[in-house]
Amino acid sequence: GLDGCFTRVNPRFESTLGYQKEELLKRSTFDFIHPEDLETSKAELLKLQAGIPTFNLENRYKCADGSYRWLAWTAIPSDTEDRIYAVARDITDRKGAEKALAQRDRYLTAIVETQQRLLSVNNCRFSPTSEIDRGILEPLGRASGASRGFIFENHRYIDRKSVV
Question: pLDDT band at 122, cuts 50/70/90?
Answer without folding.
Answer: low
